[in-house]
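re: ur question from yesterday

yeah so i grabbed the chain u mentioned. its 204 aa long if i counted rite. heres the sequnce exactly as i have it in my notes:
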Amino acid sequence: MIRWLFYLPCSLLASVVCYLTNWIVVFFSNEEGELPGVFHLWQTWDNSLDCSDSVECAPSIFKYDWAAHYREYKDTTQYLRSVNRERWFVECINNDFTIWEVIKRYFCRTLWLMRNNAYGWGFYVLGYTSSPLLLVNQSENTIYVDEVNGDGWMYKNTAPIFTAFGWTVHWNNLLGWKLDTDAKFDTRSMIANRVTFFFEREAE
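ran it thru and got these structure tokens back, copy pasting raw so excuse formatting
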């Protein structure tokens, strides 16, 4: 808990810095959607900026023919292998982009970073490498802890808060680290600090 409390303001600061600079950092990306050096901390740890999801999640005005330019494959790096993680890479198979495709790709890359803000900071710098986990409680409030040293933990809360006008408001919290609950080996996870809500309509 102490480590997370110390990391939390650092995570919030990184989030603010990344939100303000994502649109600039994108210009340093190569043709495979990889950011170099320290800028890699702005990037999602598990994906390229040019992953297929970056186009699928974008508004239709920014979509381009991704499959005509890229192919996607899963692999790892020396560091990710050491913490039992894999990620998606892309290969640019056709570098012949029109000017409009380049513009659309820029917006897809930027929106992808905004959607997954400061993921690299949360994983590489503020992340936690946990051993296999112990489930403490399984319900609407779920807690996992690192059973070896107890320093890594994850708290998920989807409990209802109140019901009104046929809708139930639930917590949607994820705190601690985004631990891989099925991991059989020491595994790296990024920090989590989500405190939000979701709405559920009552069955008629």
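noticed a couple things. Strands lie at 70-75, 87-92, 128-130, 133-137, 141-146, 153-157, 160-164, 167-177, 187-189, 191-201. also Helices lie at 2-25, 52-56, 78-82, 99-115, 119-125.
anyway ttyl
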